[in-house]
Amino acid sequence: MSTQKPLILHNAQCSRRNDIPRLALSEFRTRILAGTTAGMRMAALFGEGPGGGRPVILHVLLADDQAGSLEWLATEVEGGYPSLTPDCAQAHWFERELAEQWAIKPEGHPWLKPLRFHRAYRDKPDVWGRKGEKPPEPSVANFFGMEGREAHEVAVGPVHAGIIEPGHFRFQCHGEQVFHLEISLGYQHRGVERALIGGPGRRTLFLMETAAGDTTIGHATAYCQAAEALSGCRVPARAQVLRAIALELERLANHTGDLGALAGDVGYLPTASYCGRIRGDFLNMTALLCGSRFGRGWIRPGGISFNVDADRVRQLEERLIQARRDVTSAVTLLWDTSSVRARFENAGVLPAALCQQLGLVGVAARASGIERDVRREFPFGLYRFAQIPVSTYPTGNVYARAYVRWLEIQRSLTFIQEQLRTIPAGSVETRPGPFKPDAAVVSMTEGWRGEICHVAITDSQGRIACYKIVDPSFHNWMGLAMALRDQQISDFPLCNKSFNLSYCGHDL
Amino acid sequence: MISEVPVLNVLLARWHQGHRTIAYPKGTPVLPDRLRGRPVLGPSPCPADCQACVEVCPTDAIELKNGRPRIDLNRCLFCPECERACPKATLRFTPEHRLAASSRDALVVDGGEYILAKTLDRKIRRIYGRSLKLRQVSAGGCNACEADVNVLTTVVFDLGRFGIQFVASPRHADGLLITGPVTENMRLALIKTYEAVPPPRVVIAVGACALSGGPFRDHPEVHNGAGGLLPIDLYIPGCPPHPLTILDGMLRLLGRIEKDG
Q1: Cβ contacts (< 8 Å) between A161 and chain B: which residues?
Q2: Minimum-distance CB partner of A159 among B77, B137, B145
Q3: What does the pLDDT read at residue B2?
Q4: What is the pLDDT of residue A476?
């Protein structure tokens, strides 16, 4: 079987699905373990149900950051297979997802419990013996426990104190000290991936925009790139520039909001107050261009819906100049205030080695000194021609995650201003044709949280047979759990905010 | 300007950032010209048998009645699809942000009068008119409605000046503000949170998801909004609604804005 040619792809490069090597299970495992040991990352591991009682097809996408390419492998599994997780921690979350969706058991998985608490996609009892007569109850599962004098457990959620999404958190504590945090999600599960099967349809784009609503541009762009590759459509240069501007505006708004929220969590109200407002200024710039603060209805397969004229460009340039002044004034206060620095520096350390082991992405990885950014390693759209330096900071603590955001704010501002000066003329839209039959594509973007990975496979009619969405949060929730070890429980809000992960992007 | 004395920087920043709270409801800030607020139907008649808007609508929010579109704002995502598809520019969006209503049935655009939200009855208004504490529950929301509710607490909107505040416990709350289509996995938590609020309770549903399921309508994993599970007092459409739409709705509910013009 080892004679099968590997399928090596670039970001958003269309391939025939028959070119995905279907390996024997043992070789599939060996190649994954060899690849990840050699430094490749698991960008996606997921199942595809061919129906008709046939075995589930397991797909893996291994990202080679050095080469800027992705290796795609597949195998078939019926009831179970030897788990990868004991040898490859990156597989932990993916294998729990596989077990829950497809009722296949990763034998020997160290902590096999449901991820989202829904019925299996296949009409058979799932690996926990649930037959699907009634929906599984969220968070009803085993949790880590700790016994001993003065050991205690704190349970929080799903409904939290602030205006945030629901999730359940269990802390095993000794006094104030957290020994372990276990995060149980799934409350936001609304069946996004399943609803995409058989598409594209009228709702497809809108399911992408709302996969994680604060990352509307990131997910919509990832989908559109996949759709454009599948239909062989070329996006006009002007649209590519505006898409990149949209993505960086989304990053600016969210990073600014996060810095304000981090300030709020250590009780430093000036920055909290200013950044809360400046975040809105960035959202309003997106609304200036497309009518929606979140960029809804802007990015579409083939280009974008709303062009900009010279007057709108000028307005945006003026607002960016003012916003840079405002955000600089607000954020530099953080670095000048010793009480803020002390709280930021002494909380939530995540060593680089652990980040690598867990396969973290985005700000969380870069704040542990790891240079990892889809815009550079797997450049897409405009980023193939215009680069943004990767922002890192070595210390892996809350300070680092805050500071990387600040570096990225400055670089995104400069990038947008440069692009606005040289924006190419021409149309912003082409009409993509139908999807090619039996085709496969992987499309990645660097959303403000990190790597967004979409994988699409079409059937013989050119309809979506399988669509996988990997939000950066899917990789990173375990990172938050590990960062909380040995911290004071009172630092949880601060640590949590420093990651600011998506619940709905995870739960889908 | 950066001073060597840290505290002076705090003061300089304060001076630089200025006063940013909007005068609303006394004055409305300039909204983006492309904002897709309340849709309107123009006078030009639809071509015979034209189904263009109906066919592109992602949530089946549009039906044709007597040859004219009728838009159900409970379902509308305020996306540009119908406007783009309309061959006669009959259907178009305006930046009009006032959209909140007191019943599902009022959320219709069909060329007739659009009835905005009514004030709570006098008895409840006497209790809550000057102080309303809300518990927010996200029940499958995508974090866009949540974010634009949250933004009301910033200095720009300064929700606190109207006596409205989001609180950490349903036991401290007078009502709920619900976002999301109500996933099966949040159904019990939502109902328990509702029951933990001491009556009389006010319930506000924000966004297409909470009103109708939004883009997730009819997925087996969701309940098509909160209306089937709880009594709703205020319906705020949008995907997500503009923060001013949400604020306008709340102020109408409390009788702080009564005029329609």
Answers
A1: 168-169
A2: B137
A3: 64
A4: 97
Q: Look up residue B5 and give its DSSP letter.
A: S
| Residues linked to residue A468 through DSSP beta bridges, in sequence order | A455
Interface test with B, best of A118, A188, A304, A332 (most B CBs within 10 A): A188
b/e B189-221 (16+ beta carbons within 10 angstroms → b): bbeebbebbeeebbbbbbbbbbbbbbbbbebeb
> Measuring CA to CA, which residue among A121, A140, A282, A132 is closest to residue A191?
A121
Residues of B in contact with A158 (CB under 8 A): 186, 189
Round to whole Å and give the CA distance between B15 and A1: 70
Give yes or no for residue A374 having a pLDDT over 90: yes
Take residue A73 and report the two structure tokens written for it. 């492998």
Residue A427 domain flag: yes
Higher pLDDT, A499 or B44: A499
Which 64-123 residues of chain B touch chain A by CB within 8 A? 77-81, 84, 93
CA dihedral sign of residues B184, A130, A42, A5: negative
Expressed as residue numbers, the domain containing A93 is 7-107
Q: Which residue of A has its CA nearest to B209?
A: A210
Helices (H), B51-98: 52-56, 81-85
Q: Which residue of A has its CA nearest to B221?
A: A190
Every domain of chain B and the residues it spans:
39-97, 122-253
Q: In a mutagenesis test of the A interface, which of B34, B75, B185 is the best target, namely the one with the most A β-carbons within 10 Å?
A: B185
Q: Give the pLDDT band (50/70/90) at residue A228.
A: very high
Q: Residue A191: inside a domain, yes or no?
A: no
Question: Which CATH code of 1.10.3720.10, 3.40.50.150, 2.120.10.30, 3.40.50.12280 fits the domain covering B122-253?
Answer: 3.40.50.12280
- Condensed to tens digits (0 to 9), the pLDDT of residues A410-431 reads 999 999 999 999 999 999 999 9
Q: What percent of chain B has pLDDT over 70?
A: 98
